[in-house]
Design brief:
This protein is an alpha+beta fold. It contains 19 helices and ten strands. It is globular. One of its GO terms (molecular function) is protein serine/threonine kinase activity.
Amino acid sequence: MGVSCSKFSLCCFNSNLKSSPHDLSDLENGGENGKNVLPSFTEFSLDVLMIATDGFAADNIVSEHGEKAPNVVYKGLLENGHWVAVKRFNRSAWPDSRQFLDEAKAVGNLRSERLANLLGCCCEGEQRLLVAEFMPNETLAKHLFHWDSQPMKWVMRLRVALYLAQAMEYCCNKGRAIYHDLNAYRILFDQDGNPRLSCFGLMKNSRDGKSYSTNLAFTPPEYMRTGRVTSESVVYSFGTMLLDLLSGKHIPPSHALDLIRVKNLTMLMDSCLEGDFSNDDGTELVRLATRCLQYEARERPNAKSLVNSLITIQKETEVPSHVLLGIRHGTATPPQPLVLTTTGEACLRRDLTALHEILQKTGYKDDEEIANELSFQMWTNQMQETLNSKLQGDAAFRAKDFITAIKCYTQFNDGGTMVSPTIYARRCLCYLMSDMAQEALGDAMQAQVISSEWPTAFYLQSVALFSLGMENDAQEALKEATKLEAKRNKN
């Protein structure tokens, strides 16, 4: 589920749950006094899910684009009127039907209002499908990184951190401490605006009996050494989530820790908050993030400790989440299929040649609004060398000599006298052409930092993320790029 998870993965059961964010006692079995109890885990027939999704129609795809995506999520409407999300694995996944069924049942036994719960599965022939609650109010990534009308309020960010920690604690208590690829696209908002943790990340990926992941955005240090996911790895990922909530951006932990070490918290905090937060609360979240991101896994806190720390800094607990989130209360309309532009289609196909032609044709017109204030003293040999590097890089870019272009554009950026989102975009494509997807993603993100509403930066992020196998993140970036391009064309 999952930009890869996503808003798209859960089902809209009306659950007017009122438990306090300080209290976990009512989190199981549908909430307070057992009201609105979710149905027990069900083995759905393929025919039922075919009807619910109109035969797995392309129009019902909500998380991946097209039938070529490895694991596609469809919206579906059951006969009882409940919207569900149906995740359909490719045929090579889960070859052992018994293993798939046992794993799905184990996850399906979990019931918490902090989770987007797994309702059932289908295991007929080679078909492997999961059926989950549908969460109608987008992902944390959408509300935090790609908001339309207002940034997420600080109080809501604190609530998200607590609810996520409570979800982790619940899973740990139930023997499911391992969660795969915890990120902002795995947090979804229900009809009440409450954040929920996607259940799909609880499905075990096992290799030789050891849990592993294939889609980690910022990899825990021990995973690089062992290739295995542990409960401590999940806490590390939780630390990256705290950084997201603090900064309003998806930034590498190493960069954040550098800012923390030099006590440059102003650079770390989301400028959109405009000081609308308590310094003490911000300091506490930074402290928790630092503990979670410790290099040695044994030095990281456990989920219970995180919950206890986060409870103490909650504010306005009586205010409903939908009010804090600024959304209409009740069931939202399921997302509509994405209509892609020419550039978007090229990104989806990863047609780098077409993207090269587009960047070449666009030139530097998107740099016009970037301020480069240069003093007279800067017009020196260094400045001339910087400009020469740009010209040489452009010539190499036209000639498709991508290695030379990378070298020249790097010299331009290292000159430090000018900033150019186009240079980063062009070097990003050069990296993609050279099978250097991680470096390409870094450049695309840097282009976004310089020009926050530039569609090209998000388009290139999507291609880099596709290349890294991060399908869900790529889809979310592609949607944001499409939205920004439509907004620009309207203006």
